Structure prediction request, 1207 residues.
Amino acid sequence: MASISLTVNGRQISGEAEDRTLLVEFLRGDLGLTGTHVGCDTSQCGACVVHVDGNAVKSCTMLAAQANGADIKTIEGLAGGGELHPVQKAFHENHGLQCGFCTPGMIMAATDMINRHGASLDEATVRAELEGNICRCTGYHNIVKSILAAAAEMSGTQQAAE
Amino acid sequence: MYETNYHRASSVAEAASLVSGSDDGKLLSGGQTLIPTMKQRLASPSDVVDLRHIAELKGITVSGSNVKIGAGTTHAEVAQSAEINGVCPALCGLAAHIGDPHVRNMGTIGGSIANNDPAADYPAAMVALEATIHTNSRDISAADFFVGLFETALGDNEIVTAVSFDAPSRAAYQKFPNPASRYAMAGVFVARGSSGTRVGVTGAGSDGVFRASDMEAALDANFSAGSLESINVDPSAMLADMHGSAEYRANLVKVMARRAVEAAA
Amino acid sequence: MGVEGIGASVARKEDKRFITGKGRYTDDMIVPGMKHAAFVRSPHAHAKIRGIDKSEALAMPGVIDILDGKQLTADAIGNIICGWMIHSKDGSPMNMGVWRPLAEDTVRYVGDAVAIVVADTKAQAREAAEAVAVDYEELAAVTEAVAALKDGAPQIHPEAANNQIFDWEIGSSADVDAAIANAAHVTELDVVNNRLVPNAIEPRAALGLYNAAEDHYTCWTTSQNPHVARLVMSAFYNVAPENKLRVIAPDVGGGFGSKIYIYPEEIVCLWASKCTGVPVKWNCDRTEAFLTDAHGRDHVSNIKIAFDADHRITGLKVDTIANLGAYMSLFSSSVPTYLYATLLSGQYNIANIHANVRTVYTNTTPVDAYRGAGRPEASFLIERAMETAARELGVSPADLRRKNFIREFPHETPVIMTYDGGNFDAPLDAAMKASDYDGFPARKAEAAGRGKLRGIGMSCYIEACGIAPSQAVGALGAGVGLWESAEVRVNAVGTIEVLTGSHSHGQGHETTFAQLVAERLGVGIDTVNIVHGDTDKVQMGMGTYGSRSGAVGMSAISVALDKVEAKAKKVAAHLLEADESDIVIEGGELKVAGTDKSVPWFQLALACYTAHNLPEGMEPGLKESAFFDPSNFSFPSGCYICEVEVDPDTGKTDIVQFVAADDFGTIINPMIVDGQVHGGVAQGIGQALLEGCVYDPDTGQLLTASYMDYTMPRADDLPSFSVLTTKTESPSNPLGLKGCGEAGAIGSPPAVINAITDAIGNNNVPMPASPQTVWAALKA
Prediction:
């Protein structure tokens, strides 16, 4: 058994898990954070994407023990103080989700993408950056639209703050 | 996943001792291949030794044209490295297209070359750049390092610590991905340096990464895409699967080589 | 239209839980004492089971029990059913073999369930499942339908000689043969419709809970139709009587048909819960999903289409062999018959049509309805043939189609459909305009300058959805009625609950159904709650598939609303001392027309429940229900135009433009309808360019059993789509709705292949048109 101690959505968490426990299993099973999903076994669908120390990572392809000491953010921790994150808001306004199963991973991937590219994101870049996230419902059309809208909104907000 | 014991190493020496002290231990770098393999129950190491927190495996140094990349450097770090981009942008471009953004945040250059997946990108660059693979016990030339499909010259418990190479004057990498997995079905790294042109090919060869010496000779004579027209890639030396027959891969190798030369020119 | 009523692009009410990680899917459910299941599955495509040795596995840590097919049979759990009887043309009933939820003596495909292991953890269950020693005697296997029909092929079920399930026909063969013999031109094509795996991103899951104290079962499951699941598990599988069985389909992560069926796993989890005394949860991993989710398509067909000298179609003849896999799944027999051959008239006036369909057992995963279900196969045949004919005749593909369009309605086709309305010119004109069809030659020349082969292709599809009426489908062999139910409950404070038998797994019912109520009663959608997916809460319903939830499900709500309104008006007239016929419902109030007298909705509701002052003899309360059975299918139609560029060096196809123009009748929420089209088109492009299920023909192993080998459409495989609509209302339901869920998957594959074949000048390009395939076609 491994002792796991990490920060999840700003809270210090300590627990025990088998060494083979995947981070996603720890989040879903031990912490009850079932917003992070599992859609494949080959590390391709991206339904499990969370942020580990600020970077988007597939939580199905990382042991919980590997994340020991890390700062994790999941979909449950994205909205702050009751306010939806701009990416969440954009997915809602642009119908960027249907069944909702890939959505947490999509939103976490989109947030990471916007953090790296900012307002310079264009459609081709968004589509290329979504290589690790599979959606079966939307045909990606409105996901791309949502991410571009969020990127514009977030860069606008930043400019206003500067 | 079968049961395993996780260890976090803080130095290369500790990692070597942990893995050698285990029944059937494996080194865990970014884990982007090993963990999926364990999840599918195709690998069942008794122990995994995590290299991700070893400071001596990190870092990128560029002095003059010499580039040294710590084995624990992630694909994302290579892709975004301004220093490497200054001398060998082709390598940044290659790293920027390995897997997807989330994989690139975890996967490392050391893990990639030590695994030597025949469809991985880095091996093509390593052989074309005539890189040196540094381990905790020796230096190995890329030409000697990559032995066959998933096989390298690494001994038991030998750990890749870094790779180094002299940046070529021109280089480019072009790959054609498998439509499903997005691994390379043919990836060609062309590098033109002081000792001539080197062409590394991944994804296609039935023995894994290889150098296309006839292309190199033709490009040494005339570094242009046109000089590859007369080259025949032998399908009998190619991998074949449902996504690409040997003939199709042979075609792709030539097309990707041509495009790499055009991009490097 | 109000801001939240019919026609408004309202952002979805259900989104908030999904975007904040608060969705509740079956695998998220936890009940006290819950244990985990893993299935022992056949590694062979065809084998006899000589024996099962569970002893080593039973002794492993955490293992509670291991149950096999013999125990299941001893407990009288029934066979998996097929719900649609088809008779062969000789009058004999279909030759259906036995499908046991756990195979007892023979396994017939890789993945066939043999036993269930229940253990403390999922990992322990899996390890024990690997340790169960099944002694198999391997038998020869066959995976392709054409091969399975041949003499000497491995025999899969004793009931089906030569593996043929039925040999069915529709239309007059003699008339069509005469038309072909007298034709000025005949276009003929051999076409394979590739086998697909639905791949809802949420893998299937089931949680079975048996409560011994109450002798009651609860099943949480990833279902598109929980009531049908309860009915079938009760009436046929003998799990429990309906009043002792509650089925809950909570948030479900996509279905596309694959979650219609009542699979072995949920039955076995319920049964295992009783056997073991613990709640049993199973969730599928992706490879297991590839092996066991019902697949789609897999037809091999020949089509001949005959024209007179004036290019009018005189006859159409189709011969199809359909692979149904190792067992007959729930609706498998209806897909290649009444959902397929009945649509072979397309948008065209064709006097003579004949189709012959043979269905075949093979050692592959069962095949059933997948998004479109028969209609994509029909539209692919017709629209490939029309485009090919236009090329052969040297006429414009649009003109050839226009010349043959049906323009008078109702129109009865020779394959028993009665098209009740439509305007096929409108979407064609709209799509050609939006795609700048006439400007294509210039774009092709420009692409040629860049070394790219540019092509354009169109498809004019028609489909039939909201399958109905029940009496007619019953006469054709259906085992169920295909109505829908609704209950509208106006609470005492005026808030509203709508209980619907439809099930939302991505379609946005919680929003669109509320929009209908908002439109009718003038209330905000936030005061309306849509309740679905739980047999304990909702009256019997038929669920969501076949693009039926709007045309049938919302129509049921509409009829229930009629009743609510009628009663509310009576009460309002009584309270306002006015004539009932003068009461209008507007802006959340009941008003006396032409006066300032009104009663707010909430006050009226309260009056119904206080019952202090109701009309003489009226029952208290305000709650009405309805069962709606449409008079006909609805017939969405449209025109899709696809433009591609092919890289001749690699064979890679890029879709550079995709225009979809659809006639969906009345549209409740355009944003949601557009989203349905986007998703459908993506799956259609997936079929055309990327997806295909590959079996090893010798061993019967599924070679495309993960996303490493099965090409799922990703964001960079697809363009942004240009989506527009035209409108003729359906006369077959009160709202004028047609279905929109499947159209994209039905209309797009032929448009894509027509474009690729145009680009490369070779008409023989199989699906999926992968880079390798197109490269080979370029060289041929």
The helical segments of chain A are 23-30, 86-93, 103-117, 123-129, 141-161. Residues 26 and 32 of chain A are 8 Å apart (CA to CA).
